Amino acid sequence: MRRTFNTILVPIDFSAYSTEALLYAASIAEPFSSSLLLLHVIAQDAKVYATHRHLERRGLPHRVFPLLGPYSEMLEEPQEETDAVTVDLREQGRVALQQFLPPELAKHDLELHVEVGHPFDQILAMARDKQTELIVMGTHGRTGLEHVMLGSVAERVVRLASCPVMTVKTATPPPSSNS
User: Fold this and answer.
1) How many domains in the chain?
2) Residue 154 and residue 80: Cα distance in Å, rounded?
3) 35-43/7-11 β-pairing
4) Burial of 121: CB neighbours in 10 Å, binned 0-12, 13-18, 19+
5) pLDDT tens per residue across span 40-92
6) Which of 62, 78, 143, 165 could disulfide-link to 135, CB 3.0 to 4.6 Å?
7) Is residue 62 part of a domain?
């Protein structure tokens, strides 16, 4: 039985890991003439923070959570303001995604998507909604305490996706910021 992949989803976080995953996905897509769905997810926390900054710059009242910090959930912020911030963040993400693409991918059928939310939820939702046959994603390969503290989007996607998931780790990890 020969397996074909009409649609391949590649989550992009702009890291070297997602670059490597994108190149793997492109090499798989070519013989199958698959379309590539590229998805960048703007974390919900980033949206909350951006909305608070937007409201501050405009001099508009907003809730401040001094004990919880700027990343706490918003309550009763003006909907039109949060919508404007979401549109702006998505447009910035789309531009960044276009700039991220290696030139050799110009020959591929690409569909760019930018969503706001929890990355693993958005990845799973897009895979389901677009009837993706394969997800190819980079993994940071965190272990130990770092994995426990930060969790793993890739691990959650592997466990919960209804289609096959290929995880890709770069041959040489990017230099650590701890050195």
Assistant:
1) 1
2) 34
3) parallel
4) middle
5) 998 876 666 666 566 666 565 555 544 344 444 444 556 776 777 788 888 99
6) 165
7) no
* Structural domain containing residue 130: 7-47+100-168
CA 5 to CA 23: how far, in whole Å?
16
Question: Residue 108's closest CA among 164, 166, 40, 24?
Answer: 24
Nearest to 34 by CA among 3, 64, 59: 3
Indicate whether 38 belongs to any domain.
yes
Locate 11 and state its tokens.
Answer: 């989550």
Pairing assessment for the beta strands 7-11 and 110-117 based on DSSP bridges: unpaired
Query: What residues are paired with 11 via a beta bridge?
Result: 39
**DSSP class per residue in 108-155:** S-EEEEEEEE-HHHHHHHHHHHTT-SEEEEE-----HHHHHHH--HHH
Rounded CA-CA distance 39/25 in Å is 13
Closest C-alpha among 152, 106, 172 to residue 11: 152
User: How does strand 134-138 pair with strand 165-168?
Assistant: parallel
| 85 within some domain | no
Which pTM value belongs to this model?
0.77
